Amino acid sequence: MPILPAEPDCHPPDLWDDHPPQNGNGEAVWWCLHTKPRQEKSVARELRKQNVAYYLPQVWKEGRTPRGRTIRSIIPLFAGYMFLRGDRDDRLAAQRGDRLVAVLDVVDQESLERDLRQIHQMLSSGLPVQEEPAAPVGALVRITTGPLQGMTGKVIRRGQRDQFVALVRFLGRGAAVELQDWQVEMVA
């Protein structure tokens, strides 16, 4: 099977110039596209065909086949997410392909654009980049969903997994459960 060329991480190529182009008839804003699993690049291809501006940050991943051969692939930095810059018509165009779970409104446009520019600069630097969880190790968090909703504790790392720790400070001991980023919010 032939290896496909890497998908462009943004469209148009000058998306990150000082004044990004406006799309359609309305004012261009950022939207966060939550894609179905492994559909990010397909959505990007469709948006590029329709000349809709998008940003799909991607990184190199190196792995091995069962026989030990090294393979390299390009994967989305944020699995299941990409960003569209356009008007409501562009948003509707993205939804037509049945590849999205949801389109998320971005309340703070300036903050998102600043963050995306930083991610783009990091990826363009040539340095190795990897996804970092929203709640870093040591952060105080509150669980927002599930049977432990409302509990407050710290994030720790044991092995390859982040865990939530509820402490009994008097004893200097605690209990830990595995943690998913979507389950918590940072506590101020």
Structure description:
The chain folds into two domains: 10-124, Alpha-Beta Plaits, CATH 3.30.70; 140-186. It has helices at 40-49, 88-95, 109-124, and strands spanning 10-11, 29-35, 53-55, 58-64, 70-76, 81-86, 100-105, 140-143, 152-158, 161-168, 173-178, 184-186. The mean pLDDT is 84. It contains three helices and twelve strands, in the order E-E-H-E-E-E-E-H-E-H-E-E-E-E-E. The protein is of the alpha+beta class. The strands form three sheets. A five-stranded antiparallel sheet has the order 1-3-6-2-7, with helices on both faces.
List the SSEs and their pairings.
Blueprint: E1 10-11, E2 29-35, H1 40-49, E3 53-55, E4 58-64, E5 70-76, E6 81-86, H2 88-95, E7 100-105, H3 109-124, E8 140-143, E9 152-158, E10 161-168, E11 173-178, E12 184-186
Antiparallel strand pairs: 1-3, 2-6, 2-7, 3-6, 4-5, 8-9, 8-12, 9-10, 10-11
Describe the structure using short key phrases.
single chain, 188 residues, alpha+beta, Alpha-Beta Plaits, 2 domains, five-stranded antiparallel β-sheet, 18% helix, 35% strand, globular
Separation of the first and last Cα atoms? 51 Å
The 3D shape can be described as: globular
Number of strands: 12
CATH topology of the largest domain: Alpha-Beta Plaits
Tell me the fraction of residues in β-strands, as a range.
35-45%
Task: Write the CATH architecture name of the largest domain.
Answer: 2-Layer Sandwich
Question: How many distinct domains?
Answer: 2
Determine the fraction of residues in helical runs and give it as a percent range.
10-25%
